[in-house]
Amino acid sequence: MSSIHLPKSVSQRGKTSLEIDRENFEKRQTVALNKAINSQETPVKEKHARNAILGTFQDQGGNMFWTIASKMPVQANPIVCWKFLQMVHKIMRDGHANVVRHSIRYQAQIHDLGKLWGHLKEGYGKLISSYCKLVVQKLKFHDKFRGIPGNLMMTDEQYYKICGADVNNYFEFSIDMLDYMDDILTLQHAVFGSLDMSRANSMTSSGQCRLAPLILCILDSCQLYDYLVKSLFHLHSSLPPDTLFGHRDRFLVCYKKLKDFYHKCSNLQYFKHLVQVPHLPDDPPNFLIASDFTKHIKPAAIVKEEEPEPEAEADDSVDNLIDMSLPEAAAEPPPPVPEVDERDFLIERLQREIRLLKEELGRVRAEDHRIITGLKEDISKLEKILSELRLSADKSFKENEELKKNLDPLKTDAESAEKLAKANQEKFQKMKDIYSKLRDEHVVLLRNHDTNAKQLSALKKSLEEKDQVLKESQLEVNRMVEEKQMVQENLQKSADDVA
């Protein structure tokens, strides 16, 4: 049976204008995402990515993006998967604020995607696995700290509100940021490791396709480095240094790798046209010295706007996604599709960035004012201490002069005192000898006393034993006398009876 093609005017009857607008919007987003996430080994074009980002503002989140992306062959084509991950990362940073919240539920899918491509040891396998791990880590980070926007840009008030006054929150927050930073550094290491730096891969399409996501990594790492430094200085002001040894050790490793990452990027021609790569200080901050915090300068990465391309591709039309096999007689012109007002979205985005920059400028000015005020107070204290030291030095000098004047009469007294001391020393030595002799005699007497006491105790015991024997003998004698008297009385009585 041959298929019947109905005119668009017939197929759209019964639909409301909102439903038609929604369908047209979905078609435009499908076109934009299919152009951004394609199988060509080239970097994602900014204009297609921008259309997808603008779509998140019209959709008030990322649901439309995930609906369209779920139909893409991310499990079959590594280039499509690589660009898909870059777009997820990009819309979380630059898209509507709800994109992050709408994307959190897809953590498990991205994790499984990383495990799948991780089995591929060559090409994009290792890169996709590392990128999936980074995206999942970012989603977990934002799920845990809901107040942090997708682009990680916050004012000081927002930053301090995340952890509040509990030092344990700063402790855990620092660990999560270090985990996040580790995944960024792992990805950049994998990307640079997949390039042949001697062949200037940064100027080839395949090399740029791999390097493009590192721009987002540079932007994320700048914010994380700033918040890490602030959090660690805050922790060291509240906890013993030994407790934070692990934090300092991990930060130092991240600092070295991050500095090397920025150095590599700054030397590549590809990045010079797209982003101003920041530079870290020569030495890492010393968290054991509180004043070292005043030397901290937040690294800034500025994305350079690409010039719009003059080309007008034929497949930009939404009609390319619609069945064009209708007979000419039955075909009717489609209803006019309302154009997305990109200018309004761009204005809103620029206003938001300007507002954030103004807040950052105000924060920097306030911080500079605080530092200057603190330095002035320190200078005032030091001047006061210096004045007191000068007065004390003058007073000590006058006292020394007076002592010198009185030194001559004291010398004579000192000689007399020295003679007297010698005489006293001799007397003391004699008394010491007498005391030693008396002590020895006393020790001998104590020893004799102990011996005599023992002998006396033995004699007492012997006397007591003899006394006991005498008492027993006396009792025995008395008993015998009584028996003798009784015998005599009995004899006398017997004699009387006989008579």
Automatic annotation (TrEMBL):
Compartment(s) of residence: Cytoplasm
Keyword annotations of the record: Actin-binding, Coiled coil, Cytoplasm, Endocytosis
Domain ENTH: 21-149
Classification via Pfam families: ANTH
GO molecular function: actin filament binding; clathrin adaptor activity; clathrin light chain binding; phosphatidylinositol-3,4-bisphosphate binding; phosphatidylinositol-3,5-bisphosphate binding
Coiled coil: 340-420, 446-490
Family, per entry: Belongs to the SLA2 family.
Name of the molecule in the record: ENTH domain-containing protein
Organism, scientific name: Elysia chlorotica
